[in-house]
Fold this protein.
Amino acid sequence: MHIKRLLAGATALTIASVAYPSLADEYNANHFFAERHSLVRGPYVEFAEKVKEATNGEIDFRVFSGGSLIPANASLQGVRDGVAQVTYHAGTYTPAELPVENLIGNMAFYNTDPFVMAMASTEFSMTNPAALDEWKKNGVVFGGGYSTSEYYMICNKPVETLADVKGKRMRMAGGAWSRFAEYVGAVPVSIPSSEMYTGLDTGSLDCAVTPGDSIDSFSLSDVINSMNTLAIGNYYAGFLWGYNKSLWEGLTPELRSILFDQMAYFLAKGRVEFSADVDKAIENAKAEGMAIYEPDDALKAALDEFVASDEAALIAAAKERGVENPEAILTEFKAVVDRWDGLLEGVDRTDVDALAALARTEIYDKLDPATYGVD
């Protein structure tokens, strides 16, 4: 009798588990920026809270920031292998694994509007066949993109003219940025953003080429004294959210729809807050004595000349990495960028809801949550 009661209880428990799923295990969400950064505060910390609430706890992300779970150069492998179930990844760290993404990411000077590039890079990476094949090969489901604000030369010594740039050791994001440094006679140094402070402090760097918010978010205000306002592209290669494929395929279409909705919102909110952080950091630094230099005509002309000539280098590098028909990929990417340039014309760049609505209607609502990212 006792055994029968145990079996009956076990059966009832099994039935109850099917009818009423228990709360999911906690999943790992990884970002190598500090928690105070705009791409972590909203798109990871607040995003995790909203997803948990919207899914009634079925998706519960534990956020690791500052590289505490996975370092910057291992985030693609980490999400593929399930160390994290979702992560941010900068494509510059894995050019061999992501040649298509690095191809479009090195088109950083084609349009430097970060709102346009955040939306365009997201749409392209979720719809282009070559990009989708690349994610699949890497065991990742692309959830959404991003774009930094424009890169500036933030320095520990005055850099105003083309002559000033020559010989300066500049932290660059690799790819087109490093080629530009060489073009103007500077010395490119490829290090993670987390190492900019140490480089500037010890003198192994003269400048960090990085968005203006880095003055605060990476505490560079302690080790710099000037900024040159030449806009040296912006960075958007990789993904803001890349999901472990096994996790994604194990979710119901309803849960994926919730993630789509939240990613559309935080794609917009993260971008708005990024711009606000840039403005605040620069104003605070100016108030504390940071000198602001406008580039001289020779420096501006050098950037224009470089941009005009660099597309051939992009195409050649992509072909060396096995990308088929990179010219057609760039043509399609430019068309997506131009489309978003038109869609965002006149849109208030501080209106999160309006920007999120565009991300939903123009990107996420066009995806099928039952099939996207699923073999």
